[in-house]
Amino acid sequence: MSTVMLGTEVAKAMKERLTARVEELKEKGIHPCLAIVRVGARPDDLSYERGAKKRMELTGIACQVTELPEDISQEEFEAAFRKINDDPAVHGILLFRPLPRHLDEEPVKDIICPWKDVDCMSDANMAKVFAGDESGFAPCTPEAVMEMLDYYGVPLAGKRVTIVGRSMVVGKPLAMLMLKKNATVTVCHTKTADLPGTCREAEVLVAAAGKARMITGDMVGENAVVADVGINVDPDGNLCGDVDYEAVEKKASFVSPVPKGVGSVTTSVLAAHVVRAAEYLNGLK
Ligand code: NDP
Predict the structure, then answer these.
(1) Which atom of ligand 1 approaches the CA of 192 most closely?
(2) Taking CB atoms and a 6 Å cutoff, what residues make up the pocket around ligand 1?
(3) Of all protein residues, whose CA lies closest to atom 8 belonging to ligand 1?
(4) What's residue 262's pLDDT?
């Protein structure tokens, strides 16, 4: 029987720390503010937006949403984004991606002020993640995994960590955050020759492939720590992770569920980034 790593508990602890920092900023007349920029109204974006707004509200952070029409031109989109970026009242910006196909997101990566880039869109922030420089902003999801492992006291130094997935949103930056903590990291993908064997050797296994319940019980070593980043809908319409939870929890020492797992921590990391951005932009860090 394993310990369940509940993202909701991690988020609660983070909220305590963050609200204190938000209060300190407000006493100095600084009101941390996140700007969400959404083009169109994709259900996934709307769902994340609801969660983010709620988290900001709970933490005392202001949140403004700009909805742009789905058929907006590149020129109008960049102008709207630039205006939000230049607003001194805005400390962090979250742009929902992918953008509609006719829009190019590359120019926005150069427009966004790196200190407002709280979800690591810009090359400047991504380069810092890869350089092990913690002064920038890592993408929220891999950092949420790190927060969860830290909260549950999982040691990483010298440990064999295997990550299934190599996207720039989750797998690759997570590998860098793990390296920074002195883990020995293996990154798996669709061309990995022996995925079950490689996963079984891991002391800490992170699933971020986006394949429902692909990590089966036989792929997990005894007493391994298993974090599940995947968010999938199974054939019955239920939300599930990449991990076969029922089978894996019998072997793992710690396991995170879906829902109420890593996904519950992501918006807290976003809130933490907005607070840090407000501190930086006001010369407090
Ligand atoms: P991508 O589709 O961009 O990347 C998936 C990665 O997993 C790829 O590197 C792919 O390999 C690898 N992969 C896919 N199938 C297999 C397989 N059968 N065996 C081995 N490797 C495989 O997904 P994301 O990184 O964007 O997201 C991953 C998951 O995390 C999704 O379920 C997504 O919904 C979820 N997610 C959750 C968030 C949260 O807050 N909890 C936030 C962001 C994402 P290859 O490179 O070879 O194609």
Answers:
(1) 20
(2) 141, 164-167, 169-171, 188-192, 195, 208-211, 214, 229-232, 262-263, 266
(3) 165
(4) 98
pTM: 0.97
Q: Which residue's CA is the closest to the ligand 1 atom numbered 40?
A: 263
Closest CA to 34 of 68, 65, 67, 63: 63
Closest ligand 1 atom, CA of 170?
25
Tens-digit pLDDT profile for residues 254-283: 999 999 999 999 999 999 999 999 999 999
d(Cα 227, Cα 140) in Å, to the nearest integer?
15
pLDDT in tens, 96-142: 999 999 999 999 999 999 999 999 999 999 999 999 999 999 999 99
